[in-house]
Amino acid sequence: MSPLVVVLLLLAGLSESAGRILPLVARRPGVSRSHAIRLLLTGAVAEGAVFALWPLTAWTLAELVLSARLPGVAAALTWTPDLAAPLLLAAVLAFPLLGPLLHLLLLVGVGAGLVAPLAATTGLGWWAAAGCVAVAGVGLAAAIDVVRRLVGKISATGTRELLT
Questions:
Q1: Is the CA virtual torsion 115, 117, 121, 123 positive or negative?
Q2: What pTM did the predictor assign?
Q3: Distances (CA, A) of 132 to 39, 58, 150, 153
Q4: Where are the transmembrane segments (predicted)?
């Protein structure tokens, strides 16, 4: 992965994290600024990692669909700057949580952009590759949502314990 792609994914993760963390911080007036910044940066790294894993997870699912190791495929599908740039735009749109439908549509567009390279890399048909990308995206989104909720519960419990 090139340094530009890493920066794009981290910025997308930061924006996505800010869209999730800022409303949470606004509802809890007792949260300190340093705690909010730590949550924001941790969330940015987690979101960026999930974004980075999306093509790899889709490629792994494609291998499972084919039921055998892909002959002649040396490397898995990875992000390129032209594939990652719309992801950054999707995260920016999610930042203020003003456009969840537009955010979802843009993420679907980013996923559709991953389908053609996955199909070309694995030899799967377009629809099968689209299914792998969709399942990978939904699975990773569900996993990060569970982590978000768990961190939110732990954070709320820790704040309550400090107040008592």
A1: positive
A2: 0.75
A3: 31, 5, 27, 32
A4: 43-66, 87-120, 126-147
Domain count, the chain: 1
Distance between CA atoms of residues 96 and 147, nearest Å:
21
72: pLDDT strictly greater than 70: no
Q: What does the H/E/C string look like for 86-150?
A: HHHHHHHHHCCCCCHHHHHHHHHHHHHHHHHHHHHHHCCCHHHHHHHHHHHHHHHHHHHHHHHHH
Confirm if 21 and 36 have CB atoms less than 8 A apart: yes
Residue 11 · residue 45 · CB < 8 Å: no
Dihedral angle of Cα 76, 85, 82, 116, to the nearest 10 degrees? 60
User: Is residue 154 within 8 Å of 96, Cβ to Cβ?
Assistant: no
**Structural domain harbouring 118:** 3-163
Percentage of the chain beyond pLDDT 90 is 6
Q: Residues 58, 136: contact at Cβ < 8 Å?
A: yes
